[in-house]
Amino acid sequence: MSLFITPTDLLPLIGTPAAPRLIDVRLPEDAAADPMLIPGAVRATHTDLEAAQRLAGPDTVILCQRGAKLSQGVAAALRSRGIPVRALAGGTEAWAALPGAPRLAISKVPDGPICVRLGTIDGLAAAWAIRRFAAPCAEIWDVEAPGEVAARFGGTAIEHGAIAEIGALGLNVPALDTLARALEAGTPSLADLWAGLYDTSAQAMDRGCALMDAALIWARSRDAGGAA
How does 78-113 read in b/e, with b if 16+ C-beta sit within 10 Å? Predict the structure, then answer.
């Protein structure tokens, strides 16, 4: 297993089911100076290896500012515990310098459970965008009153639908914009398909993510610039 992944190799994985788990261990002052994340990254401190271990998945990449001390140290420590992880070569600075690489403002990462009406294609698409690009570890709660539930449980409500949520992320991902425009124009076949697949089981979000992943592949095929 390679000890590193390059930004160029990581770029086409972002937002897809094949994306690795991303753990950003930059120092607080470095994150404050550049308060942006690689989409899907979660923040952790380099000294809390137990937290990093809990966040790690079967394919994990550790991020720091330059891909040197912090990410390599955390990656080595987790590998010593039997967890196969890599560091991002060049760190977040190299990512920021890569043309077309999307970045997410830390302030855009939602807090708590994501409360949404999953029964509509608009709600599903919004929840999927957050799961894939902003908060991969967030719980998705399927509720009829997102605002009221989120207020009671310290969560984030999705009440404005996919167009608003995708736009609010500010990711500059051409394929996402293409998908958002298609949703705005109305995609009855996609809506009808989701209506047939949807139920209130715990697996509903997984099925919905698979549907939206396929829709994003379609959007990328429509948009020659959709490399991310």
Answer: beeeeeebbbbbbbbebbeeeeebbbbeeebbbeeb
